[in-house]
Fold this protein.
Amino acid sequence: MQSKKIENALNKQIELEGYASFTYLAMAGWCDNEGLEGCAQFLYRQADEEREHMMKIFHYINEVDGNAVTPGIKQPPTSYESVQQLFKLVYEHEKKVTKSINDIVALCYEEKDHATLNFLQWYVEEQREEEALMRSILDIMKLIGTGPQSLYYIDKEMERINKEEEKADAQN
């Protein structure tokens, strides 16, 4: 049985993952409305992934005889200045999620909760991958620039990244 401190921290993580899922869904809708199909598809997939992350933690808490709490999720923003600003926000959110996971890992060491520590290792690796992917996307956008054709090329790059991610998912 895990400590209440860890259970509470994991329930907060559920809320953070849920907010990420809703935020990426709102961002995908904005991209759809802007005609950025590649960006939208990428963000729809990210929204699904974040929900899966949330559900994994939810099930884990209950599995170890805790009480997983369904969070109330606040309304995410629904409009953005630009696709570049949107992806900067995604990167900032991923860094926030990483910090939260790392804080829970540190708490697991304090509480000597080896089972939860082991469970969280997947999240540690996932967050490293997520941050690297978002930095890569921002780097691509910086290279493309903000000229008249930039949205077209950004969207095409996102389509390419989607295909790579789908291929990687299929191999796992």
The chain has five helices and no strands.
